[in-house]
Specification:
The chain is an alpha/beta fold. The protein folds into two domains: about 160 residues, 3-Layer(aba) Sandwich (D-Maltodextrin-Binding Protein, domain 2), CATH 3.40.190.10; about 90 residues, D-Maltodextrin-Binding Protein, domain 2, CATH 3.40.190. The strands form six sheets. The chain has a three-stranded parallel β-sheet with strand order 4-1-5. α7 links the parallel β9 and β10.
């Protein structure tokens, strides 16, 4: 499905201009090399910039059902779409969605083009070096899928010397490689499963709930799940960890607290997954 960029160019240019202008003020204030940290923080504050625009810029893939995808009317829907919309509303903002490939989401976050990434992002030690994370808004297990006629792979340990297909730089790719698999990079879960069913790869990894959703829609798909991780991964929202998003992260955490307390997260989760993945229990 053709990706659509839901954020207007004018909004991006306006945001960039505002940040540029702030940056100029910061430079002027620091002409003697002694610009205060308060001035610097004000110059790049992500929450203040979002409030000035009136929008929360949210990056996601838009092709990963049921997290974020286009329905039959080409409307962007999914768990992450509704969760991020609810968070934006808690912040008094309108969500602006930008779709892109997985690895590009983080590059855009690094460059300051997005306020947050809401795309089923799992917290890892490596990612925590580059980003600050919100509290979890979902908990998932990673599952291992093979064709129905495959009897050679029954555990993650059996991936040694085998081939898998997963999104580049995803936790699924990293896990497969840690068990000795050769990983082919793909863009979408649908593409991954088609490669598996066609025999182009031996296995693939993804969130268990994503596989269950696929099988609900395609009950005749000839693949099976043979293993899953013991501990649940925490799905959180990453922001830049350079101090510019501290106030934004605090506001996002407050929003998640409110959405969990009033049952909104559970309701959205039941809608898309048939169970409450917003609770660790």
């Amino acid at each position: 499905m053709k990706r659509r960029n839901f954020i207007s160019l004018l909004a991006v240019m306006a945001a960039a201009g505002a940040l540029s202008a702030c940056g100029s003020s910061s430079s002027a204030a620091g002409a003697d090399g002694t610009a205060s940290s308060a001035v610097k923080a004000e110059a790049v504050d992500r929450l203040a910039a979002a409030q000035a625009r009136g929008t929360l810029i949210v990056a996601l893939e838009g092709a990963w059902s049921p997290w974020c995808y286009h329905d039959d009317t080409d409307t962007l829907v999914g768990y992450d779409v509704e969760v991020s919309r609810a968070i934006a509303q808690q912040l008094g903002l309108e969500p602006e969605y930008v779709e892109g490939e997985w690895d590009g989401l983080f590059a855009g976050l690094d460059a300051g083009r997005y306020d947050i990434v809401c795309n089923g992002v799992e917290v890892t030690e490596e990612r925590a070096k580059s980003y600050d994370f919100s509290q979890p808004y979902a908990y998932i297990h990673t599952a291992l899928a093979v064709r129905e006629d495959n009897t050679d792979i029954t555990s993650f340990e059996d991936l040694a010397g085998k081939t898998t297909a997963n999104s580049i730089a995803s936790t699924y790719m990293t896990l497969a490689e840690s068990y000795g698999a050769e990983v082919l990079g793909v863009d979408t879960l649908d593409e991954t499963i088609q490669m598996l069913l066609a025999g182009r790869v031996d296995a693939t990894l993804n969130a268990d709930v994503s596989f269950y959703d696929y099988l609900n829609v395609h009950p005749d798909a000839a693949f099976k799940l043979v293993a899953e991780t013991d501990e649940a991964s925490h799905v959180c929202i990453p922001v830049k960890n350079d101090g510019s998003a501290d106030s934004l992260l605090a506001a996002v955490n407050e929003a998640i607290d409110a959405l969990r307390a009033d049952g909104t997260l559970a309701e959205i989760s039941e809608k898309y997954f048939g169970s409450d993945i917003s609770s660790e229990d």
